[in-house]
Amino acid sequence: MQRPLPEKVCAVCGRPFTWRRKWARVWHEVRYCSERCRRQRRGGRA
Q: What is the pTM assigned to this prediction?
């Protein structure tokens, strides 16, 4: 039986997102669900 993947809530849009393999080493640092949300947070609306 498989365990469900860990989830977090995006700091910008508030949507839940699940763990991805590419985030395995940095999961504790991930705050945004996508590159788009990450850019909105740092640089304002682009």
A: 0.76
